[in-house]
Write a structure and sequence with these properties.
Largest sheet: 4 strands, mixed
Number of strands: 4
Subcellular location: Cell membrane
Family: Belongs to the ExbD/TolR family.
Strand content: 5-15%
Strand order of the largest sheet: 2-1-3-4
CATH topology of the largest domain: Nucleotidyltransferase, domain 5
Radius of gyration: 34 Å
CATH class of the largest domain: Alpha Beta
Order of helices and strands: HHEEHEHE
InterPro entries: ExbD
Protein name: Biopolymer transport protein ExbD/TolR
Helix content: 25-40%
Membrane topology: Single-pass membrane protein; Single-pass type II membrane protein
Distance between the termini: 97 Å
Number of helices: 4
């Protein structure tokens, strides 16, 4: 056999082994790899992110905050207690109950009485004066109690310390 014949036989064998290529339209684009990467990134960020709603948040200092009058607000003092507990106090210094169910009722009664005292004063807001060591979830729970019970309250303010 000549060299040309051997070369032709090899080319025929390669053609038999090669997979036929599917011709694509120029307009069609395969986005499967992009979808795979998107899901891999999504899974990575879900697994790598840390979601802890009880984590202590720091309250920023107020540079140019809005001045809110304490006389025009129902005030609740939020102090840190033992562990995850918070101690809630009224304007006169008396404490709310430590039981959360009873505390909810007392908060609603207290704010109702504060709003009734100020019929001519236009008191329609609540101010929460807290400590930096109080967990954000505890303050949010108090705001939710107030928001669910009083739809007519204009604003709930969280006091920040001005430096």
């Amino acid at each position: 056999m000549s060299a040309d014949a051997v070369h032709e036989d090899l080319l025929e064998e390669e053609d038999d082994l090669a997979m036929p290529r599917k011709k694509r339209d120029d307009e069609e684009m395969d986005i499967t790899p992009m979808i795979d990467i998107t899901f891999l990134l999504l899974i990575f960020f879900v697994v790598a992110s840390k979601m802890d709603p009880t984590k202590i948040g720091t309250i920023p200092s107020a540079d140019h905050g809005l001045a809110v009058s304490a006389d025009d607000s129902a005030i609740i003092f939020v102090d840190p207690g033992a562990g995850d507990e918070v101690i809630l106090k009224k304007r006169d210094g008396s404490e709310f109950s430590r039981d959360e169910a009873t505390q909810s009722t007392e908060i609603i009664e207290y704010i109702t009485s504060e709003l009734e005292k100020s019929i001519g004063k236009n008191k329609n807001q609540v101010m929460l004066l807290g400590d930096a060591n109080v967990k954000v979830g505890k303050v949010t729970r108090i705001q939710q109690i107030i928001g669910d019970a009083f739809e007519d309250i204009e604003s709930t303010y969280i006091a920040v310390k001005e430096e």
